[in-house]
Amino acid sequence: MTPSATPSPSVSTESHRVDGHDVHEHVLVAPLDHRGAVPGTVEVFAREYVRDGHRDAPRLVFFQGGPGHPASRPDVVGGWLDRALEEFRVVLLDQRGTGRSTPLDRQSLTGTPVEQARYLTHFRADSIVADAELLRAALGGDTWAALGQSYGGFCLTTYLSQAPHGLREVFITAGLPGLTTTADDVYRATYAQTAVRNAEFSARYPRDLAVAQRVAEHLEGTEELLPTGERLSARRFATIGIALGQASGFDALHFALEDPFTPGGRLRERFLVEVGRRVSFAAHPLYALLHESIYAQGAATNWSAHRVREEFEGFRTGAPGFRFTGEHVYPWQFEEDPALVPLREAAHLLAADDSLPPLYDGRVLAENTVPVAAAVYVDDMFVPYAFSRATAAAVRGARTFVTNEYQHDGLRLDGRRLFDVLVDLARR
Do the beta carbons of residue 48 and residue 91 sit within 8 Å? Predict the structure, then answer.
């Protein structure tokens, strides 16, 4: 190596065995700011599964949905992972700020609100992609395949824009973002689809929205405390409607609503425990902090979901009746959720930030040479179908599997089949 050469990043690894697999736990130190303007480092963690007999197989890196969620911790090797291990070594990446990759929460996010907000700008998809490239280099530098679910597909679209030389083939499920859409564009589409899902839920379980409305009316006039000690508001209760975006969510929501009241007219303890589990961001505060910023490209979001809901009669503040909301984050959640309260000022500053750079390069994508296959779900409540189709058309050579068979959680429920479909599509 010449004196002016940049040294390859190093990775520390611990290994163990699980059911016919070597499992390698990699830790890499990466710069906080890959552009070098801000000092500091973060740790990047990834867990790699290698099936016996496949130690020389190419790698596939998995980008989890979110933002703000760590890679899965599989208790059994099944679904898409089992299928992928038939031909790949699989790397489950904890995106920075999650899992074991310098996790961010109210305990670790220190400094003034201004410092916190600036720090958070380094946890978007562009930084995640740069981390992945460092990890790839540390593991030998060979190109790898990549699978992205939901926000993981957003990250892969950034990867194709910024570092396509690191990719051999790309598979995306429920995660083709609009390349130039604003947060307002996205939330207008998702509120419309959330209204559809509310109607479909009511058609399947005709009494449940009435039960939910009764709960909401009760919460408006009666103090009910969650297990974490804070009062449950009607508007926060409505956010459990995020479950409507999953195929299994209808039944789960129905079961949660089947018997919420005691004979004395108070909410049952078990109901409050279940709702508390669903509305708390304690396990993934980065999701709430970053959710709107994933759509910010040179313009502030200014709490888009909160503003745009007023354009929809059924979701407007004070509207009669009851509707569940979906994948929407509101400023008042930073007043009501104990896990978010210490971060509220940073959240407001991030929502007002108009300097966040573009995440996708349309010119690079138009000249793409990496095989890309994407599953696009017509009825997806979180990633609007029209935007995904437009992006698929803008990425040279991208092939799509368009279907109404799945909701947003198709990979979790039918991962082996979807992986097979995408591999076949990408390699035609």
Answer: yes
Tokens of 79: 């679904």
d(CA 11, CA 27): 6
Q: What is the pLDDT of residue 2?
A: 33
pLDDT in tens, 344-397: 999 999 999 999 999 999 999 999 999 999 999 999 999 999 999 999 999 999
Give the orientation angle of helix 183-204 with respect to helix 249-257, to 10 degrees: 60
Q: 11-180+360-426 domain in CATH 3.40.50.1820?
A: yes
Nearest to 297 by CA among 104, 106, 157: 157
Segments making up each domain of the chain, as ranges: 11-180+360-426, 183-351
Residue 336 CA to residue 280 CA, distance in Å, equals 10
What is the structure's pLDDT at 70? 97
Q: In terms of DSSP H, where are the helices of 177-317? A: 183-204, 208-221, 234-237, 249-257, 269-279, 285-290, 304-308
Q: What is the residue type of 260?
A: P
**pLDDT < 70: residue spans in the chain:** 1-8
